[in-house]
Amino acid sequence: QVQLVESGGGLVQAGGSLRLSCAASGSILSINDMAWYRQAPGNQRELVASITSGGSANYADSVKGRFTISRDNAKNTVYLQMNSLKPDDTAVYYCSANIIPSLQTFGIGYWGKGTLVTVSS
After folding, report:
1. What share of the chain is helix, strand, coil (3-state, %, to 5)?
2. Residue-wise DSSP of 38-106
3. Residues contacting 104, CB < 8 A, separation 6+
4. Beta-bridge partners for 16
5. Of 14, 27, 51, 53, which is most buried, counting CB atoms within 10 Å of its CB?
6. Which of 35, 38, 67, 62 is nearest to 50 (CA)?
7. pLDDT in 10s for each residue of the chain, 121 residues
8. What residues contact residue 30 under an 8 Å CB cut-off, 6+ apart?
């Protein structure tokens, strides 16, 4: 019943910006950590940014200073503001969250299907 849906991906020129959104829906008791991952062809999936339920954020060195992760707990949504985009940022971006479903006592990891970000040179 619980699902994550990403949106906001697209094509952008180098130096431009995009804002990704990921909304959790379903029977949810609470959401713990939320995160953005990305995977480019031939590469492993890598953690881009994560944020705790209290709003503490961490970033991969490659995006530090350019990307900002945030969340709106009232909307069960996490965002990734991406500025100064580079061609190397091109990847499928996946949302992930540890969610405690209704009637459960422990969190379960969930993944969205991904949204493609393409940065042209």
Report:
1. 5, 60, 35
2. EE-TTS--EEEEEE-TT--EEE-TTTTTTEEEEEEGGGTEEEEEE-S--GGG-EEEEEEEEEEETT-SS
3. 29
4. none
5. 51
6. 35
7. 899 999 999 999 999 999 999 999 999 999 999 999 999 999 999 999 999 999 999 999 999 999 999 999 999 999 999 999 999 999 999 999 999 999 999 999 999 999 999 999 9
8. 53, 99, 100
